[in-house]
Amino acid sequence: MTDASITFEQDREAGFGDYFALLKPRVMSLVVFTAFVGLAVAPGGVHPFIGFFAILCIAIGGGASGALNMWYDADIDRVMKRTMKRPIPTGKVTEQEALSIGLTLSAFSVIMLGLATNWVAAGLLAFTIFFYVAVYTMWLKRLTPQNIVIGGAAGAFPSMIGWAAVTGGVSLESVLMFMLVFMWTPPHFWALALFMNADYDAAKVPMLTVTHGKRATRVHILVYTVLLAVAAFALLATPIAGWAYLITAIVMNGAFLAGAVRLYRRDEVQAEADNYKAERQFFKLSLVYTLAHFAALLVDRVLGAMGVGGPF
């Protein structure tokens, strides 16, 4: 074996970072935060250690979903520019390893969450993993341009799971937190698709930009942004939202609606001329949108515990 081949094999050897990347840590960060807020604002509270362990299990479950997604989507990840550097396409991790890790972590997270909290929360976590992998990844993603709309439910469940870990059930508050993330997902991903359309086209993923064109996508972004605002303000009808949430909802939804209208008014000649600047800005704003709303719920919870403020 030559020195060059030895070096090549060493470059292909997986490290901790490669296995961690299988868990989609960026996606996991939103999962962890929304789950934590769902747990924190739930009535009754829970012992800090149990709460920490519950969030850990939810994070592991989210990471397991990411590993299984990378296992099944390895073929299209090799084609798309934004995914071709993931562990499987680069040869750092094999597809079989990703499958084994995903299945093991899935079982571990569900069982341990059930034992630590309750089986309602565990059942919701199990359903979330199943929905993301089987319903979204294996079925919807390659079948319909509504893949993001329906599949967005998987990313919306964590706050509901956190709530159930404390209360042992589902309520209006947890459903509305679910709806906030569920309605946010389409405009978030469609904005990305507007300037990454070539990736989805090359991978033959039927994203809305590929099947119906960018004009239709801009219309859909505007419609779903309006629906998102309705879902966001609906939380004000519950005890978990106070003045911090009200202010955040007004500011963020105003900015998001303004951004959606701007995208709607743009044509492709203009967008291509400035390298989709407005679309990229809208996508970046979408990254802040959900975090800001859930952070506001957390602030209202803290203020309420201190005897300051309270429900709107």
TrEMBL record:
Q: Identify the keywords attached in UniProt to this record, alphabetized.
A: Cell membrane, Heme biosynthesis, Membrane, Transferase, Transmembrane, Transmembrane helix
Transmembrane regions listed in the UniProt entry: 27-46, 52-72, 93-113, 119-140, 147-166, 178-198, 219-237, 243-264, 285-308
Report how it sits in the membrane: Multi-pass membrane protein
Q: Coiled-coil region(s) at which residues? A: none
- Keyword Membrane listed? The answer is yes
Chemical reaction(s) catalysed? heme b + (2E,6E)-farnesyl diphosphate + H2O = Fe(II)-heme o + diphosphate
Q: What is a single Pfam family found in this protein's UniProt entry? A: UbiA
Q: What is its EC number?
A: 2.5.1.141
EC class (word): transferase
Q: Which pathway does UniProt place it in?
A: Porphyrin-containing compound metabolism; heme O biosynthesis; heme O from protoheme: step 1/1
Q: Gene3D superfamilies under this entry?
A: UbiA prenyltransferase
Compartments (UniProt record) = Cell membrane
InterPro entries this protein is in? Protohaem_IX_farnesylTrfase, UbiA_prenyltransferase, UbiA_prenylTrfase_CS, UbiA_sf
Which family, according to the similarity comment?
A: Belongs to the UbiA prenyltransferase family. Protoheme IX farnesyltransferase subfamily.
**NCBIfam families registered for this protein in UniProt:** cyoE_ctaB, PRK04375.1-2
Read off the PANTHER family from this record.
4-HYDROXYBENZOATE SOLANESYLTRANSFERASE, PROTOHEME IX FARNESYLTRANSFERASE, MITOCHONDRIAL
Q: How does it assemble?
A: Interacts with CtaA.
Purpose of the protein:
Converts heme B (protoheme IX) to heme O by substitution of the vinyl group on carbon 2 of heme B porphyrin ring with a hydroxyethyl farnesyl side group.
The extra comment attached to this record reads: Carbon 2 of the heme B porphyrin ring is defined according to the Fischer nomenclature.
Q: What is this protein called?
A: Protoheme IX farnesyltransferase
Q: Which gene encodes it?
A: cyoE
